[in-house]
Amino acid sequence: MAKPVVRKPKKKANPLKTAKIESVDYKDTALLRKFISDRGKIRARRVTGVSVQEQRQIARAVKNAREMSLLPYSSSAR
């Protein structure tokens, strides 16, 4: 009996590399909104496909943008 073939899922393309963005800025809210869910949570690395260092930069930028009232802490819709 042959073993079933287990295929690994294809790795996601890094959206920051494809857009040629080398640093994440808290003032770029259009970019940061791509990494936030509709409920206002920061999306996980495995969902977005960014590296560990880039995920840290994104998290820090989102938190700074929220502090400056550029992004909401959570969505108002319930």
TrEMBL record:
InterPro entries the record matches: Ribosomal_bS18 (IPR001648), Ribosomal_bS18_CS (IPR018275), Ribosomal_bS18_sf (IPR036870)
Biological process according to GO: translation
UniProt KW RNA-binding keyword: yes
The UniProt record lists the keyword Iron: no
Transmembrane feature ranges: none
Keywords: Ribonucleoprotein, Ribosomal protein, RNA-binding, rRNA-binding
One Pfam family recorded for the sequence: Ribosomal_S18
Signal peptide (UniProt feature, chain positions): none
Matching SUPFAM superfamilies: Ribosomal protein S18
One GO cellular component term: cytosolic small ribosomal subunit
One of the record's GO molecular function terms: structural constituent of ribosome
Function: Binds as a heterodimer with protein bS6 to the central domain of the 16S rRNA, where it helps stabilize the platform of the 30S subunit.
Record-stated family: Belongs to the bacterial ribosomal protein bS18 family.
Subunit structure: Part of the 30S ribosomal subunit. Forms a tight heterodimer with protein bS6.
NCBIfam families: S18 (TIGR00165)
Name assigned to this protein: Small ribosomal subunit protein bS18
Natural source organism: Krasilnikoviella flava
